[in-house]
Structure formats: structure tokens, C-alpha cells
Amino acid sequence: MASVLRTVGNRTEGNRTSAVIRGLTGSTTYYITVRAYNTAGTGPVSDPAVSVTKKPPPSQPPLKVMWNALNSKVILNWERVKALDNESEVTGYKVLYKRNKHSRPSVMETNTTSVELSLPINEEYIIQIKPFGEGGVGEGSKPITIHRAAAPNAIGAASKVSTISALSTIALSFTARTSL
Fold it and tell me: What pTM value is reported for the model?
């Protein structure tokens, strides 16, 4: 088994006993050591602490997003996202919806592949669905725009989009020794 020694970040100042290490690879085991320093020099290396980064969130967006508007309700349905072997399992979905592209979205969470939203008529809404799991929030569906005109019914669908994402941070905390 190959071993890689890498120094990350700068020294902590004063009596700080924690650090954040960024840029790590998801679903990877890391052996982390620290060493103290002062005006007399650098102390010995600590015993390694073993830490495993979480699997990254799902990289695939929800596909086949379908919607049906009836009166003041919009019913959304989509295909279940299946995480790849190296990704965290999908535990739910975040449905983000907002009135226009400049407003802040409202968020509804669900663990199913459908949701019913109450959205007033005579408004335009932008809706996006994102899977999430232990590794964080995954790639979202292509945003869909629903025009809530005073028409009685409307049906629509969104198209396919895909990208890749990753989780790469470990927060590290350690205890300072008072003597060597």
C-alpha cells in the first residue's frame, strides 16, 4: 500500500486546536497527523487519526420531470435517482420553487418522487428538483417554468441535464498537549 505524505494549509496561530482541511476526495480514508511548534522548534508527529470522507452526493439529476396544474395546485412527478456505487444513497429530494428568476426559492423536502404544491393562479413559477443524501445535495433537474394563467388545466415536462459534483472537506479538531 502506497503512502503519501502531504502538508496542507498553514500553521495555526496561538493555541488553536482545530483546523479545516479542504480539497479532499470523497469516500477516501485519510490518516492525519499533527505536530506542535514553538520558538524552540517543531515537536514530534502525533499518532495518526483515521478519518473517512463521506461519499459525494448523487451526480445525476432527477429525470422525466412531469407536472400537472389544476386550479391552484401543481402536481410534480419525476423518476427516482439511483446513486452510483461511489455516491451517497438518495434519502430525499428538495423541491425549490420561486416566482421569478430573481426571487429567493422556497424549499419543500420529500422522500417520495412526487409532490403537490399550492401555487396561486396568475403567477409564473420556476421549479427545480434536487436529490440529497448523507453526502449533501446533488445535481438538480433542469429548471422548469410554469405559467399559472387562469386556464383550468396544464401539463408539461422537463428535459434531461447532467453534471458531476463531489464532497471534499474534512473538519479536523485536535487536543493540545501541555508538555512533551
Answer: 0.66
